[in-house]
Amino acid sequence: MGYVIEMLEITKSFPGIRANDRVTLQVEQGSIHALLGENGAGKSTLMSILFGLYAPDSGSIKVRGKDVRIANPNVANALGIGMVHQHFKLVHNFTVTENIILGLEPKAGLVIDRKRAAARVREISELYGLQVDPEAKIEDISVGMQQRVEILKMLYRDAEILIFDEPTAVLTPQEIHELMGIMRRLVKEGKTILLITHKLREIKEAADFCTVLRRGRLIGTVPVAETSEQQMAEMMVGREVNFHVEKGPAQPGEVMLQVEGLNVKNAKGLLGVKNLSLEVRAGEILGVCGIDGNGQTELIRAITGLAPAEGGKILLRGKDISGLPIKERTGLGIGHIPEDRHKHGLILDFRLDENLVVHSYDRAPFSRLGVLDFRQIGANAERLIGEFDVRCGQGGSTPVRSMSGGNQQKAIVAREIDQSPEVLVVAQPTRGLDVGAIEYIHKRLVAERDKGKAILLISLELDEILDVSDRIVVIHSGEIVGMVNAAETDENELGLMMAGCRKEH
Amino acid sequence: MKMSRSKLLVPIVAILLGFALGAAVLIATGRSPVDMFYAMLQSVSGKNLRADTFNPRYIGEFVVQSMPIMLTGLSVGFAFRTGLFNIGAEGQLMVGSIAAVAVGLGIQAPPVVHVLLVLAAAMLAGGLWGAIPGFLKARFNVHEVVVTIMLNYVALFLNNWAIVAIFKSADSVKTAVIPETGLLKSAMLAELTNGSRLNWGFVPVLLSILVYWFIIEKTTFGFSLRAVGFNKDGAQYAGMKVNRNIVSSMIIAGAFAGLAGAVITVGTFSFGRALPAAEGYGFDGIAVALVGGNTALGVLFSGLLFGMLKAAQPLMQSQGIPKEVASIIQASIVLFIAMKFGIEYLMKKLKPKKTTVEEVES
Amino acid sequence: MSLLLTMIPIALVYATPLIIAALGGLYSERSGIVNIALEGIMMVGAFTAASVTVWLEPSPMAAYWGILAGIAAGVLFSLLHAFASIHLKADQVVSGTALIILAGGVTVYLCQIFFDQQRTNAFSTGLSKISVPGLSKIPFLGPVLFQDVYTTTYAAFALVVLTWFVVYKTPFGLRLRACGEHPQAAASMGISVLAMRYVGVLLSGAFAGLAGAAMVLTQDIQYTIGSVHGAGFIALACLIFGKWNPFGVLGAGLFFGLSQALSIYAKDIPLLQSVPQDFFYMLPYILTVIALVVFSGKSVGPKAAGELYDAGKR
Lengths: 505, 362, 314
Hints:
The complex is a heterotrimer of chains A (505), B (362) and C (314).
Chain A: E1 3-14, E2 17-28, E3 32-36, H1 43-50, E4 58-63, E5 66-68, H2 73-78, E6 81-84, H3 96-101, E7 107-108, E8 111-112, H4 114-128, H5 143-156, E9 161-165, H6 173-188, E10 192-197, H7 200-206, E11 209-214, E12 217-223, H8 229-237, E13 255-265, E14 271-281, E15 284-289, H9 296-304, E16 311-316, E17 319-320, H10 326-332, E18 334-337, H11 341-345, H12 352-356, E19 367-368, E20 371-372, H13 374-388, H14 405-418, E21 423-427, H15 435-450, E22 454-459, H16 462-468, E23 471-476, E24 479-485, H17 491-498
Parallel strand pairs in A: 3-10, 3-11, 6-9, 9-10, 15-22, 15-23, 18-21, 21-22
Antiparallel strand pairs in A: 1-2, 1-4, 4-5, 7-8, 11-12, 13-14, 13-16, 16-17, 19-20, 23-24
Chain B: H1 5-28, H2 33-45, E1 47-48, E2 53-54, H3 57-81, H4 89-106, H5 111-140, H6 144-165, H7 187-192, H8 202-218, H9 220-230, H10 232-237, H11 242-268, H12 281-291, H13 296-318, H14 325-338, H15 340-350
Antiparallel strand pairs in B: 1-2
Helix pairs in contact in B: 1-14, 2-3, 2-13, 3-8, 3-11, 3-12, 3-13, 4-5, 4-6, 4-11, 4-12, 5-6, 5-11, 8-9, 8-13, 9-11, 12-13, 12-14
Chain C: H1 2-31, H2 38-56, H3 62-87, H4 92-115, E1 129-130, H5 141-146, E2 149-150, H6 151-169, H7 171-181, H8 183-188, H9 193-219, H10 231-241, H11 246-265, H12 277-294
Antiparallel strand pairs in C: 1-2
Helix pairs in contact in C: 1-6, 1-7, 1-9, 1-10, 1-11, 2-3, 2-4, 2-9, 2-10, 3-4, 3-9, 6-7, 6-11, 10-11, 10-12, 11-12
């Protein structure tokens, strides 16, 4: 049983960062081989090199024992290597078939032979059990089906080695099970699978071997059956990992935020949130968990004021804020840590001190009669930088774009918490952050809770929800399908609800 | 606000390259770049180095040519800071000109008051013309580029119609002369510069530059405009009224351009004119804004630069140098600035920089 | 009714360059590059065509050589936009604007060099009209569509059909559209987005050059700075109005052509006699703004058009 893929001493640098530092990866034919590491560890870079999207600075690649140079995806395809991307590379208004044949279209003279294309797609789809609708447009099909289209793209090109890049980020626990099944079937048909992930549970469930990367370096390759999750986690992070944030029991007080029968339209004009009700008390953290796209975005937009409510009420300490503009809600005590810090949380081209006053620049002490007071703005920045330990190159005048993700998020957290809001709406606060930053933010949230704030935590990471929340509600198709205490539930129960099964009371 | 070294470098390199290209074009077609540079020098300083004469009239005309394009430069630059591309400065200018003629001919008022009303009317008209694309963008998300270009043509035809139908032009080309009280003209300044058309227009121009700087850098309004310009979503999340900002920004941009129309009509000239085609102040404004980095001081200097190019044209033409070489130089400079990302990208590749804290997504 | 029939030939003359230029814009934008410099390329094409025609007269094929030269000039000129936008990642609208200024400068400059004046010399014939023998006898439409029509008009119709075929039926068209909608997807399938976009822009250069040549040879007697007078921008409007679809572009072009014809014949229509001529000149432009508003909202253009393509983005 030889190695079907060998990447030897691969080094790749980008301006300012060494993404891969003499990494060696050897994959056995017919295995499922996981590539584990945190964000920024170098996994995707390594696989992009294998797929021909980048060229390594040094090192060599062998496919089936022969030295190769993979200059572009075409060469990779010719070698039988295919990649199923994390962020799907599908043209939204093309059909499933068009996406699959793009670049390798069957021809009848000058024209695309659509009949032959559809037939071939049907053939492969049946062989591997990947159910799709060939004539449907990508923008109309489910995420699960879109992923199957991604896989079919590779099988259409007779890929033997399939790279899966973080495939489970957008799937329900049940769909993840299905995907594991698909992977095992592919291996049975003779394929080899490379699985990029940072989810230990999935590695334990599906993989034969696991290679761990940390900060661009190879830590080691282990047989999965003989390694525990704890051990793999420690290899990934480099120290003993404390999975859980320390917190005492919650002392919930009065109801701070009340949502009653809320209806909110989504981007397509349909109801993204339907007749939703929840309440958050002072001194507790309410976690909202669910699969991406089940109404979380619309819920947040309605509460913060970015989108109007079609029906229902939002009450802040008993006062109806449903019709109020964003600025007034902020003034009344709603803070918001948005899920996309680059798009919504910060103005990247502004300085740090400017970003820190983005809510308050138009009132004293930061401005008077419409004119800004830069001294006050600077002093404010200094204070927050110290209090929240925000690392920035040039203090308040640091251009935010040059700060690391973790520190950018800290800046946002600093800004929002400093406003001392009664209710803090927190969405995906630790996305893309390293473990140290995650620990800090979780500790901070618990600290605010203990000060008597009401915190609404929306997250796609089940672990985060289970760890940080006091109470948990599950959202599915825009409705709350269940509510539990964090201490009394587990992933399976939550997973079922996330898939739509209502909790029996 | 610091102007970092690399920010200054790009416009300067672009300007040098532009002039080099112009010189190359001249050489390739058998003309002398030296003649061109002499003409440019003379149009700025009044000094004819070859004949060793001095005529301040050139300096006056140089200022006259620079003034309107500084204003359209402010117009375009202001919109740019807010994330909008205002190609409509030309139309806003023309509408401002119409308003200036209307108030100039249409009402009577004491000396300073009259001209102030003229200027105010021009700014108002320009602002309204700018509000149209602003509103359409805010409300319907219609891209401002095509709308403003269309409105430029509408303004042109509106102007020509008004000259004849409303202002009752005798020869269908010019209106009656506007009474002195409504003009920016100054006999003193004209005499000082040996009969040039230099006028008091430079006062509103300099004031505009100051106002521009103040609004953008010092006010809360400017803060929110810049935020919207950099990141519409982030600004909205922070509670800023994005749509209102877009409209306000275009109104102010339009006002600057409208003022330019007034400066031309009651400063450079003293009557309204029907035009066969747009005169290009809008495009000049784009060049000025881009080269000036959309800053007040930058617009001042690049306005002088492109003003010099304009002022030198008649002199060049009379010496056998086709005056279009000025447009070629101008276009090249803008093109080189547009390629700045490429230039910066190349510079980064040539010089390995020290490590910055950057997050590479794996 | 007979007035309408007399207006149609003129409308076709006006519409032809609009349709051709808009089709060029279609190729460019479908590949992901916004090309507002169509106006500038048309000017270059018009200048070249006029100059070559003047030089080659009285040869009977002079105008056709002029057209060929115009196409070539358009391709060369658009190379600048392609290089700036694709390789040097310039802002596409700024680059386009610069090219418009450049086109005006270069064309009149060369007029001064070659003709010692700020326009070309006048050519005596330009493009000649033709009649199709059998078809021109068809009642009603015959005289309108097949008698005394410029070949460029037929070319425009043919190009519409050809474009539809290429863009929607061939592999090339599929890949082109993929580059404009989701360049990362195209790249991951081994398509060279760079090459595709170059092709798109150069095609737009060829088409716009042809459009400019057609315009000057059928509507004017020489090239001046005002020869194209905004037709390139109206062509852009046709593209938007026509929702980036070849047949839509055809319809939009005919519509704008008709509205321009209206400005000439308005004095013969009792209802419109009192409307000043300037308002008819304004009409196409106002209609465009209205069309933009009506078709606003959901974006129908290629999703990635105008965005910088970053090969490193995942």
